[in-house]
Amino acid sequence: MPKVIIVGAGLAGSLLAIYLAKRGIQVDIFEAREDMRKKAGPGGRSINLALSDRGIAALREIGMDEYMLARAVPMYGRMIHPVADEPKMLQYSGRKGEYINSVSRSGLNIALMNEAEKYRGVQFIFNARISGFDVASGEIEFESGRTIRGDTVIATDGAGSMIRQSMASQVSEFNVSSAFLEHGYKELHIPSEVSGRFRLEKNALHIWPRHKFMMIALPNMDRSFTCTLFLAHSSSTDLSFDRLSDAASVQAFFRNEFPDAVQLLPTLTEDFFSNATGQLGTIKCWPWGFGGKVLLLGDSAHAMVPFYGQGMNCAFEDIRVLDQLIEKHGDNWDTIYGEFGQLRKINTDAISDMAEENFFEMRDAVADPVFQRKRELETTLEQTYPDYFSKYSMVTFREDLPYSVAKECGNRQDRLLMSISAANEDLSVLDLNSVMESIRNLG
Ligand SMILES: Cc1cc2nc3c(=O)[nH]c(=O)nc-3n(C[C@H](O)[C@H](O)[C@H](O)COP(=O)(O)OP(=O)(O)OC[C@H]3O[C@@H](n4cnc5c(N)ncnc54)[C@H](O)[C@@H]3O)c2cc1C
Questions:
Q1: Rounded distance, CA 434 to CA 442, Å?
Q2: Do the beta carbons of residue 340 and residue 315 sit within 8 Å?
Q3: Burial call 62-96: b when 16+ CB within 10 Å, e when fewer
Q4: What is the rounded distance in angstroms from the CA atom of residue 388 to the CA atom of residue 392?
Q5: pLDDT value at residue 44
Q6: What is the residue-wise DSSP string for 266-322?
Q7: Of 91, 140, 211, 401, which is least surrounded by CB within 10 A?
Q8: 293: CA distance to ligand 1 center in Å?
């Protein structure tokens, strides 16, 4: 029985272990952190993320989609919160059944680990930090000095991947680029009401777009919301994290910029100073594999900014594709990794680029009347024409469509629909059939 070593028991590593085990492959999965099942999260609070069709497709293949969706809060659209106006809902799709799902990150990770452990060949080893990797021999070194080797190594050790760093220093033609945003992020908490109710509309992803920065909130199963503030780390001219250095400046910033949210954040100051400020960036590298000895997968191969809600969904899609190649090539890892890279790189580059572009859409465009009209037009088109999909829908709800196709098609459509929406303040005068004809002509 072949033996695969997985480095990193995060979302991708834990799901991959299940897929491999289903094929009768023996898996040892090494994780730097302690077992999260033995430890409550920070303050016992939930950090969530949006699960959508590409990720659900992978969970379906291992029989866990229904389990996870029963523990998710559906989000049907973006609820836009202007500074001084009523919130407005923009639907994600005009079609029924097309929505995204807020799931607990640790809840999903734990469910995947529990499922993986049901297979005899799977072994999780916690508190085992990899400190180096020898690309030529496939030998892994731990912080403790111990070394091990398997038939092959799959690195799911995230954006800061140690395996990727080892490859970069040993493989002469290895290319890596990292582009960090000037914005960082901080998580904050909106608890449920004392009566146990949600304090905001529960079936929405809430956005407070403020051009140079923004805040979002996703609902949790315990009826709280996890908010994320995206703001520049530092700036000499604009508001930034380094200018919010005491309770008074934080409270004033939130009162001015998020007046309807500040009252919902009773532990704002405490959370603001106790929660770390995270970094955001895009990492691209190539090649992902080397001689059948090692493969980078998930964030270790293609970390992206979170503005399309696709990092995990894309990593799960990676695993589906890898599994199809194992079906085709058995344990010929060299061939599998080569084909995997050829199939996936063009698509992970596409979604990484779209994720960067979507930052501007979320913090600027969603507050723009022309963009709002375009979203309304897209929704109407989706309600009217079964073959019409907006760019957002192609990325989020079309597991059958490669990201690269969604990007190309979506950009062409976006340009056309933005110009129609800019030229027409009243969409009801439009001849929808001719709009649809123009879209079909785009190819
Ligand atoms: C703020 C934010 C919001 C996001 N929202 C979404 C969303 O809504 N939807 C979505 O699809 N994606 C989202 N993402 C992206 C998503 O979190 C990642 O794409 C996903 O976690 C990638 O999974 P992974 O398993 O590749 O990496 P990770 O989840 O980072 O897991 C890596 C694992 O490897 C372990 N590890 C690291 N180094 C070592 C080492 N040297 N030795 C052993 N183990 C090691 C780590 O401890 C960790 O457990 C978001 C990301 C951020 C930052």
A1: 13
A2: no
A3: bebbeebeeebbebbbbbbbeeeeebeebbbbbbe
A4: 12
A5: 54
A6: TTHHHHHHHSPPEEEEEEEEE-SEETTTEEE-THHHH---GGGS-HHHHHHHHHHHH
A7: 211
A8: 23
Mean pLDDT of 146-170: 97
CB distance 30 to ligand 1 below 6 Å: yes
Element (H, E) at 22: helix 11-22
13 Cα–ligand 1 center, Å:
10
Tell whether pTM > 0.85: yes
Q: Which atom of ligand 1 has the smallest separation from the CA of 311?
A: 19
Tokens 């997985």 label which residue?
6
Question: Could you tell me what percent of the chain has a pLDDT over 90?
Answer: 92
Q: CA torsion sign, 231 to 233 to 237 to 243?
A: positive
Taking each helix axis as running N to C, give the angle between helix 105-116 and helix 11-22, from 0 to 180 degrees, rounded to the nearest 10.
20
User: Measuring from atom 29 of ligand 1, which residue has the nearest CA?
Assistant: 10
pLDDT digits (tens, 9 = 90+) for 322-343: 999 999 999 999 999 999 999 9
Report yes or no: 83 and 257 within 8 Å, Cβ to Cβ: yes
- Structure tokens, 437: 């004809």
Atom 3, ligand 1: residue with shortest CA distance: 306
Coil, helix or strand for 175?
Answer: strand
To the nearest whole percent, how much of the chain has pLDDT over 70? 99
Tokens 């994720």: give the residue.
Answer: 355
Question: How much distance in Å is there from the Cα of 5 to the middle of ligand 1?
Answer: 18
Instruction: Give the residue from 116, 185, 172 showing the smallest Cα distance to 359.
Output: 185
Extract the tokens encoding 87. Answer: 């919130």
Please tell me the distance between residue 154's alpha carbon and the centre of ligand 1 in angstroms: 15
The residue whose CB lies within 8 Å of the most ligand 1 atoms, and thus the one to mutate among 5, 37, 49, 187, is 49
